[in-house]
Design brief:
The protein has a two-stranded antiparallel ribbon. The chain has one domain. By secondary structure, the protein is mostly helical. The chain has 23 helices and two strands. Helix 17 packs parallel to helix 20. Helices cover 67% and strands 1% of the residues.
Length: 518
């Protein structure tokens, strides 16, 4: 949507751009200054010199990530330079983190999502969902949330939000042409609903959001013999959270936070039907991508035995001579490769070509690698053990309160820094803390990972929040007010589902350290 020079939103955007530039300049200088300042001071009692140098690197990276002084992927590469120089980790060990197999698993998921995007399958699915919920403002918002969450389970939160925003703006303009006031309720509710649904949907699968991938990578790195949390097992945990949070969020936004009118009238869905009609009939390429997508999801979900609590579904990998040779990463890369082989139905054109490999968000993979490297440095330097010593003071509290404290801490930190960076930093600390408290490390790592995705209050907390805020359709005060209430609700939901579903699904014993902890 074009903004005129007299439009106050245009002025606000210019001011925001100036403030962002100043913040970046400040962060660019503040990061290394803080790091050098830390290194000139004596280390706290009990902290190793290597751990103290790691603190300096963590602060440097946190400042640059928070202020976006440099592109996030560039900041994620700092460990490659600083860890060897500061004798935290050797170069080989640091670089190995960027090639972790979990990163290749996520890469496969991104390639499959690129095929969905190339042939507009995601847009068709979204429009089909939204045209079936009705034309009233509240119903349209629900349709946007369901479609956004469903797509975000498989594609990146950022790409999903980017795809949904133009459709949302067109709907708002349709309301405005009919003389319906949108500024105080419909517009901010719809914008926030898209951002929140993207974050909530990402919880549903391992490929839905980087914190989930970071958790599985950290668990395997820290405890190589630990039973893996597979794709199917994670969905048993994540899907109930999505199923509960989407309707709660919809009710909260439309009835409590913004009081969206419940006017009836099928004419309000006209723009959605027109957009769907403009796509035409489903093409052979879309059908083939949908087949690959569905097959991938099936192979991921049912690869290993799936424990539902009341029953166990045998995994297909048991049919192999050695079931352990195939994991979710193998499936992801095999199915991604098939997309470059299958024809699209157009002469000489496959479902994916070299140009679409270049469009994969490589910066996200570098960010994940930086998170893995940071976690390795925190663990190897002894910083995790030192920080765990302070968290172990929670040992006198009942277990639910310990987990609640971890969830609140992670959810709060993720509002002010990248949730992937927060997760990468917290995983080794929480693992060491759990062992010190005589607990299974997963008791703290899994709820913290879930809480990291509930970034609802600040525009800069996550990419979807920033994107909808940049639309000019809502204010910081509206996002903070709506986000605070929803964050508290989300914390309660995470706690309930973790204890009722996650603990029995993953096979966690609430007391005692497992034998695979070395």
């Amino acid at each position: 949507m074009a903004w005129s020079a007299r439009d106050p939103r245009a002025t606000g955007t210019g001011l925001a751009r100036s403030l962002t530039l100043s913040r970046r300049h400040l962060g660019l200088a503040l990061g290394p200054i803080l790091a050098v300042g830390i290194l000139t001071l004596p280390a706290p009692e009990g902290m190793t010199p290597s751990g103290y140098r790691t603190v300096a690197v963590v602060l440097w990276m946190a400042v640059w990530w928070t202020t976006e002084a440099l592109p996030i992927a560039v900041t994620a590469l700092l460990p490659v330079v600083l860890f060897p120089l500061l004798e935290i980790l050797p170069t080989r060990a640091t670089c190995a983190a960027y090639g972790d197999k979990t990163n290749f698993f996520f890469f496969g998921g991104l390639v499959i999502a690129s095929a969905v995007e190339r042939w507009n399958l995601h847009r068709r699915i979204a429009l089909h969902v939204m045209t079936r919920v009705g034309g009233a403002p509240r119903q349209i918002i629900l349709g946007f949330m369901v479609a956004t969450a469903g797509i975000s389970m498989w594609a990146s939160n950022t790409a999903t939000t980017m795809m949904m925003l133009p459709i949302a703006v067109a709907v708002l303009q349709h309301f405005e042409r009919r003389g319906i006031e949108t500024e105080t309720s419909i517009a901010p509710a719809l914008m926030i609903a898209i951002a929140y649904a993207a974050s909530i949907g990402g919880v549903g699968t391992l490929v839905g959001t980087p914190p989930n991938v970071i958790f599985t990578g950290a668990l395997e790195t820290l405890y190589p013999t630990a039973p893996a949390v597979g794709f199917g097992s994670w969905m048993v945990i994540g899907l109930p959270i999505v199923a509960v949070m989407i309707p709660i969020t919809w009710l909260y936004l439309t009835r409590t936070a913004f009081h969206v009118p419940h006017a009836s009238g099928d004419e309000d869905a006209t723009v959605l039907r027109e957009a769907l009609d403009a796509l035409g009939a489903i093409t052979p390429a879309e059908r083939r991508v949908l087949a690959v997508f569905g097959t991938t999801a099936f192979l991921w979900i049912f690869r290993a035995n799936l424990d539902l609590g009341f029953a166990t579904i045998p995994g297909w990998s048991r049919l192999l001579p050695n079931p352990g040779v195939v994991d979710d990463t193998v499936v992801a890369l095999a199915m991604a490769t098939i997309l470059f082989v299958l024809p699209s139905g157009q002469p000489g054109v496959s479902l994916l070509g070299n140009d679409w490999v270049q469009r994969v968000p490589w910066h996200v993979l570098i960010l994940l690698g930086g998170g893995f490297a940071l976690a390795a440095g925190v663990q190897a330097s002894g910083l995790a053990s030192w920080a765990a010593g302070y968290l172990e003071r929670l040992g006198d509290l009942p277990l639910p309160l310990v987990i609640l404290a971890v969830v609140v801490l992670t959810a709060t930190l993720s509002e002010f820094a990248l949730n992937s960076a927060v997760t990468a930093l917290m995983m080794p600390i929480l693992a060491a803390s759990a062992v010190g408290l005589d607990l299974d490390p997963r008791l703290l790592m899994i709820p913290a990972t879930l809480a990291a995705s509930f970034t609802f209050m600040m525009p800069g907390g996550t990419a979807p929040n920033a994107m909808v805020f940049a639309s000019g359709r809502l204010t910081v005060a509206q996002m903070v007010r709506a986000g605070l209430g929803l964050k508290l609700i989300g914390i309660v939901v995470v706690m309930i589902i973790f204890f009722l579903i996650a603990i029995p699904t993953v096979g966690i014993v609430p007391s005692g350290v497992p034998t695979w902890v070395e």
